[in-house]
Amino acid sequence: MLDQIAPAPLQEALRRDWFAMAFQPVVNTSTLIVTAYEATFRGPDGEGPAAFVETLAEDKRPTFDLRCRVAAIEQAMQLGITERHTRLAIKVMPSYITDPDADADRMLRIVRRLGFPARELVFEFSDRDHLESDKMLRLMKAYRKLGFLIAFDDFGAGDMGLDLVSAFTPDTLKLAPELVHSLCSSWAKRIVVERVAEIAKKGRIRLIAEGVTTRAEHDRLRSLEVTLMQGDLIALPQVGALPAPSLRLNAAA
């Protein structure tokens, strides 16, 4: 599989542990049921994908992005995610994708070869990546057409907002950690989250609060009827494991 996807110059790097993936659950805090796992690259020194990709030559970055996606699926399957019937969320680096249709077709071939259901695979596109651009819309539509799910990550952190949702309705919205952390101190941020929650409910869009780190944030989100959460309070990300909800949350809920 590795030889089929990665060009020769990256073979040595790919044989190392550079493609370790950390998994963090998205949990329904009403039931403590895990509904999805987000996979995130961890470099040899624990760095995330944005930092690590800067150490690579420009022509190697598209392969790195693709290999991260493949590694996430492979490792999640090895850990038994398909038996749990939970979704797998993977971040996409759209700046390294030149042909949206070809990229979507390639991902479909990969998941079919691996035996992972496309309907359980969520591709996350960050609000920081100019989701309103023609290229981004083409890319998201190409993935959606082939049965993959689409999430807007870091929603509320960038310049675009609810107008974007009317142009392209995603399957999932993930509230930016900045919004979550400000809920207990800013009425303005609370109003934004209330509005997003209302839009998500009417549009039947999954709404996930990302970056939940305190009990106060958890309680405020619950008061706004936001029950799907991800963050260190819920469970810490782990390399090589699909972690269960934190005991701290079990004790407090």
Could you explain the architecture of this structure?
By secondary structure, the protein is α/β, with parallel strands linked by helices. Helix content is 42%, strand content 20%. It is built from twelve helices and nine strands. The chain has an eight-stranded mixed β-barrel. Helix 6 (100-114) runs parallel beside helix 7. The chain is globular, with a radius of gyration of 18 Å. The protein starts with a helix and ends with a helix.
Could you outline the blueprint of secondary structure elements for this entry?
Blueprint: H1 2-5, H2 11-14, E1 20-28, E2 33-42, H3 49-53, H4 61-78, H5 81-84, E3 87-91, H6 100-114, E4 121-126, H7 134-145, E5 149-155, H8 162-167, E6 172-175, H9 177-182, H10 187-202, E7 206-210, H11 215-223, E8 228-230, E9 238-239, H12 247-252
Parallel strand pairs: 2-3, 3-4, 4-5, 5-6, 6-7, 7-8
Antiparallel strand pairs: 1-2, 1-8, 1-9
Helix pairs in contact: 6-7
